[in-house]
């Protein structure tokens, strides 16, 4: 009975009964849910990509130090025979590194700047050239210790004050 009065009041005012609003409301809610889902997926993708890049940056930072130490441990005749102003370049890799299988390539440049001083530059690239994840560069200033015995040739050691200099 009450519904009859409401419909009669609407009819007298010239209003039509509402039909289809539930469908429009349901479509609007579905559109909102789809937008929220897409935003959440995009946010998760960006967070995962950021985590991969952070891991690559940490690996590159550790790897340049490890490669520089390995190179200094293999110091030999080619490095000693280098003329002042001469340069020697060594490329290590590409090799897989880390849990995500990223490829690391290390480039080591040795420059003899004085009779007893050398400069070593190390660059580590994580990822392919088209899609680099991280690049780290480091330099070491080396000095050969003076030896009283000319037959004993000691390998150069890092200069304590200038041993590590990161350049990103």
Textual characterization of the structure:
- The protein is α+β, with helices and mostly antiparallel strands and 168 residues long.
- The chain has a domain at 58-166.
- 41% of the residues lie in helices and 29% in strands.
- The protein contains 3 helices and 6 strands.
- The chain has helices at residues 2-13, 21-73, 77-80; strands at residues 87-97, 102-112, 117-127, 132-143, 157-158, 165-166.
- Strands 1, 2, 3, 4, 5 and 6 form a 6-stranded antiparallel beta sheet that branches.
- The protein is rod-shaped and about 115 Å long.
- It starts with a helix and ends with a strand.
- The relative contact order is 0.11.
- The model has no long low-confidence stretch (mean pLDDT 76).
Short descriptors:
168 residues, alpha+beta, 6-stranded antiparallel β-sheet, 3 helices, 41% helix, rod-shaped
What count of helical segments does DSSP give? 3
Rg? 34 Å
Low-confidence stretches: none
Total count of strands: 6
Give the termini distance in whole angstroms.
81 Å
Shape verdict: rod-shaped
- Characterize the largest beta sheet: strand count, sense, and whether it forms a barrel: 6 strands, antiparallel
Helical amount: 40-55%
Task: Supply the helix-strand structural class.
Answer: alpha+beta
Elements, N to C (H/E): HHHEEEEEE
Strand-residue proportion: 25-35%
Rounded mean pLDDT score? 76
Layout: helices, strands, pairs:
Blueprint: H1 2-13, H2 21-73, H3 77-80, E1 87-97, E2 102-112, E3 117-127, E4 132-143, E5 157-158, E6 165-166
Antiparallel strand pairs: 1-2, 2-3, 3-4, 4-5, 4-6
